[in-house]
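Page 47, continued from p. 46.
Same chain as before, 150 aa.
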Amino acid sequence: MRIHDYLLKPASPAQILASVKKGLARHSSRSRVSNSTVNSDVDEAVVVFSLKDGTVVDLSRRQIKHKNKVEHLTPAEGRLLRILIENEGKVFSHRELVLLVQGYDTSQREAPEILRPLVSRLRHKLDQFPSLSERVVSVRGTGYLYEANK
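Result:
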């Protein structure tokens, strides 16, 4: 059980109902994410992308290889990169990415603050691979996308 809200006494019936609806909506979105995560883990076993310059992105092992260089990704970095690569050209909002990568819903205001450090760490790792270095693109005021033809 997780706490999703708090009410100050005396709370009106409308406030209580709104809080319960909000909790049920979060629970339902969390369930959808965990179900899709279970399914994506099965698919992830065979997800390998090879780029023209010989760079290999192996999302099942969460690593990027090019010649002698190997960079390991955290689980969250791997999920973020996978979502972006598999949806090339699609702009994801910060909030969508937090839900898909971290598995919880957050406010539109908090989502960029949660996501920025993760994207920054991922970009820092991608900088070592010229064919990947500028493919995770910020869309000002909206979120991020992956551009293959950059």
